């Protein structure tokens, strides 16, 4: 069987992204692997935040980064509940799928576990798919979780 030691779990802090946690945690526990919980922060703040707030772009980015670190820590705590799995909190800045793929190469990841909305048609075309791009460019296996309808 495969020697899985490093598992990447991307999150956007949505309930949807949490659906990948139980799969990743199960793999990690069975293989004594580490989970790298990764969140990718956009390089530039949302246009409306810059235009509507009377603060600099740099201040907005610092605030967003601070908030993201806090959420990342809280999310890691959820993954650690009732488990001895080692969780590494990773915050990157850039384009989501590129940063996930680059990080997977950086740590020589064995598996990426991520959730997808499962959109198709015009909605998929308009929004794109982080999962699809990660699958296309990652050099390690990618497990894509489609949440149950009640999620």
Number of helices in the DSSP assignment:
7
CATH superfamily: HUPs
Fraction of residues in β-strands: 15-25%
Helix and strand succession?
EHHEHHEHEHHE
- Rounded average pLDDT: 85
State the helicity in percent bands. 40-55%
Low-confidence stretches: none
Question: At the third CATH level, what is the topology name?
Answer: Rossmann fold
Please give the number of β-strands.
5
Identify the CATH class.
Answer: Alpha Beta
The largest beta-sheet arranges its strands as 3-2-1-4-5
Determine Rg (CA atoms, Å): 16 Å
The CATH architecture is 3-Layer(aba) Sandwich
**Number of domain units:** 1
Shape: globular
Helix/sheet category: alpha/beta
Determine the N-to-C terminus distance: 32 Å
Largest sheet: 5 strands, parallel
What does this structure look like?
The chain has 151 residues and is an alpha/beta fold. It has a single domain, classed as Rossmann fold, CATH 3.40.50.620. Helices cover 47% and strands 20% of the residues. It has 7 helices and 5 strands, in the order βααβααβαβααβ. The chain has helices at residues 15-18, 21-31, 47-52, 57-80, 96-106, 121-127, 130-137, and strands at residues 6-10, 34-41, 86-93, 111-115, 142-145. The protein has a 5-stranded parallel sheet, with helices on both faces. α5 (96-106) packs parallel to α7. The protein is globular, with a radius of gyration of 16 Å.
